Amino acid sequence: MIHSLISTRSAVVFGFTCLTASLQAAPQWIWSQKEAKDGETATFRTQFTVTGAVKSAKLNFTCDNGATAWLNGAKLAKNTNWDKPTSVNLKSTLKPGNNELRFDATNEGSIAGLVATLEIRTGNGKTTIIETGADWTFAPTGSSDFKPVTLVAAYGAPPWGKALEAKDDGAVPDATGIQSAPGFEVELLYTVPKEQQGSWVAMTEDNKGRLITSDQYGGVYRVTLPAGNETEVKVEPLKLPDGKNGKPLGGAHGLLYAFDSLYLMNNEMTDKGLWRLKDTDGDDQYDKADFIRKCDGGGEH
Predict the structure, then answer these.
(1) Which residues fall within 8 angstroms of residue 240, CB to CB, at 6 or more apart?
(2) CA-based nearest residue to 203, from 242, 257, 266
(3) For residue range 101-153, what is the model confidence (pLDDT) as tens digits?
(4) Sheet bearing 220-224, strands edge to edge
(5) Contact in structure between 83 and 166 (CB atoms under 8 Å)
(6) How many Å apart are CA 277 and CA 96, to the nearest integer?
(7) Cα–Cα distance between 157 and 159 in angstroms, integer?
(8) Between residues 250 and 278, which one has the greater pLDDT?
């Protein structure tokens, strides 16, 4: 979608009204289809015209699960976390005349979406906003067979919300600012490195007092907490048995350890549903997987 306006000295009120309405126009989450495929790659593009000298131009975008932005064939930036948007200053990159904005996007799991806005201000007083919407096209990455995109969700709707407004400064809350019941103390034990271990969304405790956690889009980790005067937290990835598709299970949005078994709700990858994992050879790793119940769906938790 492209929104344009021109403010003039003789129409200050009218120009301000149009500017406000245009800037409030929301982009759409787009993809190739409603039901995304695990491992799918797609290229999304739009073409637009810039008239006049560029005073400012800012691109904001994010993608579940990741995308690389290109302008007129030149690489701009890469986004790897949908909940941490990427911003690029294009003032010196945009050219007067025709331009093409493109995103090479990838998906992991069952749900996917791309959202982007580009706000351009030129010396003639014109503001143009390019945003993802129904007028964009897509093609399988590497193909030139471009077709209309599918609108997956309105901006602000679940599961992504207003992801372009998210801020992630990496700061860890101070323990003194966390309220706790009388007699309890709060101590920071471990900060999950998101680039290496993903986003932990589920946790359970096994029969040895260890925590088992899951990366929303990836594997499962076992956490051994320090005892006594120890300070080191041991975090190890677990080797999980294969699902029906021949790939290791993962993408768990729910975990429960009970009856000497780990129950895993797979909600992001193929073989969606409830699985029971067991250690049958005593090596402290899960080597057997039983598919308990199929559960279609996707999204957070």
Answers:
(1) 219, 220, 248, 249, 250, 277, 286, 289
(2) 257
(3) 999 999 987 789 999 999 999 888 888 999 999 999 999 999 999 999 999 99
(4) 200-205, 211-215, 220-224, 234-237
(5) yes
(6) 59
(7) 6
(8) 278
